[in-house]
Write a structure and sequence with these properties.
Layout (H helix, E strand, L loop, with lengths): L6 E6 L3 H14 L3 E6 L4 E3 L4 H5 L9 E3 L1 H5 L3 E3 L3 E5 L4 E4 L2 E4 L2 E4 L4 E2 L7 H4 L6 H13 L3 E7 L9 H15 L6 E6 L11 H13 L2 E4 L4 E5 L2 E4 L2 E4 L2 E5 L2 E2 L2 H4 L10 E2 L12 E3 L4 E2 L12 H20 L10 E9 L2 E8 L7 E8 H17 L2
Parallel strand pairs: 1-2, 1-9, 2-5, 9-20, 11-12, 11-17, 12-13, 19-21
Antiparallel strand pairs: 3-4, 6-7, 7-8, 10-18, 14-15, 15-16, 22-23, 23-24
Length: 384
């Protein structure tokens, strides 16, 4: 590369972390860098709103955007599938060729893997992507009463609050339709409590919200199998009329087979700088694994991907400008918890606190629900 030619910064993945990283990098570096975002999809779906779509409160067009906003900010968009990452050559392989980089930011997220459990795709629903959330919405619309089972198939999974929000929003939807008294809602999880990484106070608070709505809670109960009209937990078949199961998650294949992957396929990073074992490669968001002092891992959630992206963009920009100082990601995060009936709770805290995360739970109310709506609209206007 010529001495004064722009540095090439490549961002893999156009989710929340990738969008923030690419936008901030271009804002900070201007003509000093080419910022290239590689994303296979042409449209982005704001995942936190999929739960509202599930119960008929949103339409697909209101929570999806194309990526043209990034192009207007000077980010170069490449709509391709990443097929390989060669850190020794500082190159990324796509289906159409090779893209070299001076600095790389990996933000490829986690992949849903329903095929790991036979029958899961055929006999259950989930709200974790747009087509699936639409199918669940239609199934709920047809539902006339009976047994609803919400379950978490395995750990880890994206957005720790989402399964519990799903159960409570379905409860509220059934009440709105006047069929809650002829329905039962049950929640199953392999976790000892909801949101275990946030500590027992948060877990008991969420469990109490479930109980207040008559949602039976079954902790430490991993999913063992799927039948057409029943789920198997602990050797027992639990019949249902509608099953909503958060599918297993796995690292993207391109990461799992790369030199960046750790033993479990996720990318280990320095928790302060988000740098990987390759000095010019950073990883953010759901593709990473960041151990906490309580033995658990930092949750896979958009709020952390956003915060990590801000730090990585600042540090890459400093390196390109010749500044060796580094900003540190502090592990702070905020999470809304929809409880139905136009109310939401809030969890906020320091997940890097020692010896355990310090997280405060705010009781559900209409003000937090309004704040979540405002955040949704801010995100969709601000970043795309």
């Amino acid at each position: 590369m010529a001495e004064n030619s722009p540095q090439r910064v490549v961002v893999l993945g156009g989710g929340i972390g990738g969008q923030v990283a690419a936008t901030r990098l271009k804002q900070k570096l201007g003509s000093a860098a080419r910022v290239i975002l590689i994303e296979r999809s042409t449209t982005f779906t704001f995942a936190p709103s999929l739960l509202w779509l599930m119960v008929g409160k949103r339409q697909p067009k209101t929570i999806t955007r194309d990526y043209s906003g990034l192009s207007r900010r000077g980010v170069e968009l490449v709509h391709e599938t990443v097929t390989g990452i060669d850190t020794s050559a500082s190159e990324v392989q796509t289906e159409s060729g090779v893209v070299g980089y001076d600095h790389l930011v990996v933000a490829l997220g986690a992949v849903l893997d329903p095929g790991r459990i036979p029958g899961l795709s055929e006999h259950t629903h989930h709200p974790y992507d747009l087509p699936s959330a639409e199918r669940l919405r239609d199934a709920l619309h047809r539902f006339t009463g009976g047994r609803v089972t919400v379950a978490i198939a395995s750990l880890p999974y994206k957005c720790p609050a989402a399964p519990y929000e799903t159960a409570m929003l379905i409860d509220g939807y059934l009440r709105q339709r006047g069929i809650r008294d002829v329905s039962q809602v049950a929640m199953y999880t392999p976790e000892p409590l909801p949101l275990p990484v946030a500590g027992p106070q948060a877990g008991y608070s969420v469990a109490a919200e479930l109980a207040a709505r008559g949602i039976t809670f079954h902790p430490r109960t991993p999913l063992e199998g799927v039948e057409p009209t029943a789920l198997r937990f602990g050797g027992e078949l639990v019949p249902h009329d509608l099953a909503v199961v958060i599918p297993p998650h796995r690292p993207p294949d391109v990461i799992a087979k790369s030199s960046l992957a750790g033993p479990n396929g996720w990318i280990p990073v320095d928790r302060a700088t988000l740098r990987t074992r390759a000095s010019n490669v950073y990883a953010i968001g759901d593709s990473t694994v960041i151990p906490l002092e309580n033995g658990l891992a930092l949750p896979k959630a958009g709020v952390f991907a956003h915060g990590e992206a801000e730090v990585v963009a600042e540090n890459v920009a400093r390196r390109i400008r010749g500044d060796l100082r580094e900003e540190a990601f502090d592990g702070h995060g905020t999470c809304f918890l929809e409880t139905g009936g136009g109310k939401s709770g809030l969890a906020r805290g320091d997940f890097f606190a020692s010896p355990v995360p310090k997280v405060a739970m705010h009781r559900p109310g209409r003000s937090w629900h309004a704040a979540k709506i405002a955040f949704e609209q801010y995100w969709l206007r601000r970043w795309l």
